[in-house]
Amino acid sequence: MEKMITCSSLPMTAPTATPLAYSPGLEGVVAGETSISTVEDGLRYRGYPVGELAERATFDEVAYLLLYGELPTVGELAEFQARVAMARRLPEPVRQLFHALPKWSSPLDALRTAVSALAHFDQDMADNSTEANLRKSERLLAQMPVAIADHYRISKGLQPVMARQELSHAANFLYMLRGTEPPAEEVRALDISLTLYAEHEFNASTFTARVIVSTMSDLHSAVTGALGALKGPLHGGANEKVMDVVRSAGGPSTAEAWTLDALARKERIMGFGHRVYKTGDVRAGILKPIARKLAEAGGSELVQWEDTADIIETVMAGKKGMYPNLDWPAGRLYHAMNLETPVYTPMFAMSRIAGWSAHVIEQLASNRLIRPRGLYIGPAGRSVKPIAERG
Ligand SMILES: CC(C)(COP(=O)(O)OP(=O)(O)OC[C@H]1O[C@@H](n2cnc3c(N)ncnc32)[C@H](O)[C@@H]1OP(=O)(O)O)[C@@H](O)C(=O)NCCC(=O)NCCS
User: Fold this and answer.
1) pLDDT one-digit tens code per residue, 187-228
2) What is the pTM of this model?
3) What is the 155 CA–ligand 1 centroid distance (Å)?
4) Among the options 109, 150, 281, 327, which is catalytic?
5) Is 327 one of the catalytic residues?
6) Of the candidates 70, 210, 219, which has an alpha carbon nearest to the alpha carbon of residue 137?
7) Distance (Å, whole) CA 285 – CA 107
8) pLDDT, tens digit, 9 for 90 and up, residues 285-300
């Protein structure tokens, strides 16, 4: 006869004998090894400084670098771009899903739902090998901008625009969103911003993706989860808040007083501060002149927002010792390109998919389940009274 096991007869094992280190928000904790990027010496992707990549390469080359480990040759790039261009379409049911979503669905929520839905249609879904994950990564790289553009147009009652195979990632996105040929200077500015957004070590969304695949789950699940983490205003959602900040400051004549008041009220100025960078974010410095250049091309109202932003920066540095992160110029750049605010975080995602995918592949290549501990601060041990004896 089987022996009855009662809860009280279960062995009480101590989970660990050594004292556990605790760092709120995992600040300063090294949570894994990576050869994809480092923030130690400026930001480098696979060893290359991000500033050199922004200046001398395109986002398409950077996406290849992140996925395959090396910058592409002319031939490798052409083949990569051709594969990605071929994958620039959504299965019809995914596009239909956009019609079914409520009018108020945000573009980021729609993108997260689309990525989850795309999993069902991917022929490599059940295969978690590096080769299959590279194919899935290329497809998501191609499909995410299409999903953003299709959802945007459908939510406005417009007809989606077919992708153009000969265009780069940046150019095709602008073309699909607007339905018109994008100007070269806007394509280059967007391309640089995508390079700067493409990868950032163990940030919250990338770490989320790594945690998900560490259970031996799949790439689409990891990217769906990463999109959820990216959405928050302390992470990717910050770029959608930047113009609110700049507009609230009123203009160059009121910006200093507004910023001082906001700091006195202990408000968080979105687009400033960073968990790792405490003396400035190299990416913000690279994008700032590009945002101003496009603003200057767009007229005096845009220039006054740049001037306002400069004053806020000066006050934040002087009073708080705090510097802009990449979202600060990116939010203004996208505004200067006349793009609507709710697509800014999805645009971050259509770049970061390159980094997320590289991390998923790296995690799976030498996987160990990511399972930290919690520091218990709840009630001391107690026993359960039958319900009639409680209260
Ligand atoms: C990015 C961020 C979450 C990093 O935060 P963190 O390392 O956890 O720092 P903390 O939240 O512990 O903040 C430390 C102090 O700086 C202040 N602080 C942080 N960011 C601030 C900001 N953007 N504006 C004003 N004060 C800020 C906090 O209020 C806190 O002040 P206190 O010590 O007086 O309480 C934070 O800087 C922030 O919220 N920035 C705005 C959102 C943003 O731009 N996110 C994109 C990041 S790339």
Assistant:
1) 999 999 999 999 999 999 999 999 999 999 999 999 999 999
2) 0.95
3) 34
4) 327
5) yes
6) 219
7) 28
8) 999 999 999 999 999 9
